[in-house]
């Protein structure tokens, strides 16, 4: 058996590469996770992609219930590893229920290489893995705002909301891209001299954008984010923070 991990960007069928479409049509089985009623839209978007680009009548599509991570585990890494074990078991059980599936595809949000668990879970099955890259959410965010990801000749750092909240602004960089932030860590930072470019559902229907000095934009984003989550039942957002360069003194 071979596993195909196919990056699908933000779920917009137009984000798929030609390589992704060909890989999807080469699969015997496509696995689609269900994450509960509140995230049914995500499974629906994956099925919409299959409806739009699948032309191979032999390709089967099967859903499975995604196990939930135990957020109460005092060790974050232990909790994640236990969760990955559980997901690998469900993958194996679902594949076993569909005999003859020699090439099994999973549609991975964004790209399998960036803050996604699919590669680590796939390693537990011991099968060969082929990765098809997809658009990453930092690319979609900066495109939506029309800004460069990095300052001229300068580095940037991609991190998580948990690390930003627990450790503060990392040293040595002026630009941060923050993902997986369920608690709005940007609101914990001293806002002076920081600008934010924020997006929810970037690249998807209903995309929401905001940007500006952090002191001004933070309250707006908090309110907008809460309202969007209440309306749709889930939210997927990302933001870029940038320390503003000091204005150089005017020289005569």
Quick recap:
The protein has helices at 18-26, 40-53, 76-96, 118-125, 137-145, 161-167, 214-232; strands at residues 2-7, 29-34, 60-65, 103-108, 129-132, 157-160, 175-179, 194-200, 208-213, 237-243.
Describe the structure.
This protein folds into two domains: 134 residues, Tetrapyrrole methylase, N-terminal domain (Cobalt-precorrin-4 Transmethylase, domain 1, 3-Layer(aba) Sandwich), CATH 3.40.1010.10; 106 residues, Methyltransferase, Cobalt-precorrin-4 Transmethylase, Domain 2. The chain contains seven helices and ten strands. The strands form two sheets. The chain has a five-stranded parallel beta sheet with strand order 3-2-4-1-5, with helices on both faces. Strands 6-7-10-8-9 form a five-stranded mixed beta sheet, with helices on both faces. Strand 6, helix 6 and strand 7 form a beta-alpha-beta unit. The chain is globular, with a radius of gyration of 20 Å. Pathway: Cofactor biosynthesis; adenosylcobalamin biosynthesis. This is Precorrin-6A synthase [deacetylating].
């Amino acid at each position: 058996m071979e596993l195909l991990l196919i990056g699908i960007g933000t779920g917009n069928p137009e984000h798929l590469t030609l390589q992704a479409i060909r890989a999807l049509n080469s699969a015997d089985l496509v696995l689609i996770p269900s994450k509960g009623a509140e995230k049914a839209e995500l499974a629906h978007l994956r099925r919409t992609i299959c409806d739009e680009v699948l032309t191979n009548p032999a390709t089967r599509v099967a859903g499975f219930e995604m196990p939930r991570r135990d957020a109460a585990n005092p060790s974050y890494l232990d909790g994640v590893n236990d969760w990955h074990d559980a997901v690998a078991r469900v993958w194996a059980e679902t594949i076993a229920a569909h005999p003859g599936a020699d090439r099994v595809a999973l549609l991975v949000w964004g790209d399998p290489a960036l803050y996604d668990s699919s590669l680590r879970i796939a390693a537990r099955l011991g099968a060969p893995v082929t990765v098809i890259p997809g658009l990453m959410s930092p690319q979609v965010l900066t495109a939506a705002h029309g800004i460069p990801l990095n300052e001229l000749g300068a580095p940037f750092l991609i991190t998580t909301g948990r690390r930003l909240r627990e450790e503060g602004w990392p040293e040595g960089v002026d630009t941060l891209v923050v993902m997986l932030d369920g608690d709005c860590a940007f609101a914990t930072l001293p806002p002076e001299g920081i600008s934010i470019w924020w997006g929810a559902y970037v690249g998807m229907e209903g995309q929401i954008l905001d940007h500006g000095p952090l002191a001004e934009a933070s309250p707006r984003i908090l309110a907008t984010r809460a309202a969007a989550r209440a309306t749709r039942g889930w939210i997927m957002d990302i933001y870029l923070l940038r320390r503003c360069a000091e204005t150089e003194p005017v020289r005569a």
